[in-house]
Amino acid sequence: MAKKNGILLADGALSSLAALLEGEKEVYLIYDENLTAFAKEISAAVPSIRKSIALSTSEELKTMETVLAIERQLLQADATRNALLLALGGGITTDITGFVASIYKRGVRYANIPTTLLAQVDAAIGGKTGVNLDGYKNMLGSFLQPQFTYLCPEVLRTLGQRDFLAGAAELLKTFLIADGGRYKEAVRFLDCARKDKRGDRNDKELMGLIWEAAQIKAGIVERDPLEQGERAVLNLGHTFGHAIEHQAQLCCDDIRHGEAVAMGIIMAARLSEAMIIAENGLADTLVADFKSIGLPVKSPYPLDSLREAMEKDKKSAGGKVKFILPLKPGEVRIVPLSPAEACEILSKI
Question: Which of 186, 200, 258, 339 is deepest in the core (most CB within 10 A)?
Fold first, then answer.
């Protein structure tokens, strides 16, 4: 098993968690209700699990009400400050569990077993926890580093193609930020995986890419744990992406987080080119790459409808938002702009 920066790359099944949790006396498993089979497997292997709590997961249910419901179950189970909360699921589950851990009895430990590609490369790494407020993403939250993040190939085999691709958007985002060579490798791998009529994915190559992306994010987080500087680059595609998600929720449209991020990255690239920051043709190159693997590239919503959501971005300060603009694969720049300025520039393209 590979270990680095609190990230563990498993070489076996979920049952190998038993050795990892040996010595723990008080474990509480919080899991996505769609993963009952995996939850039972873990519970059978880890005798220290005192209680399992199933979650219905959606952005609409990622709220303080859900957090308080879990807190009450922990209280009723007499969970102490020595408890370890074990999150099994995608980014919604790990975000909620981390937030619960950060406030229960002023803080207990938690660990992540991310079961989606998106969570393995992004959401479950870095210690950002939180829930939504009135439809706006992650407005309530805290920073709390997990004890470990356990990356296991077994859980990814159950992912449907759409969810897999939503995670691929975050994988590509990470390499666009810090490793242009790996970005090209990832596009090639994902393109080949899509063309394989059997839908096969090479576990070894995929987990290698996941490991590299996870280490890039972990390194950035280690240097800037509270997002005071460099860590902001991890928001590439997210300022536009969160606004797209907000609009999708208002319109009852089905858009995954990773899909919104993919559209947001393209918008950021076009903004970067329009401001003569990016190398010429970058946006079209990214559009071709994203299309080749099946990712959406164009927001279905007008700029005016996105601007209001961006103005409520939790990272907004003094009317400005730190837009992360790509220069070329492997290099980005932080550019403070008001949402109105960004939308005005894009409207002229």
Answer: 258
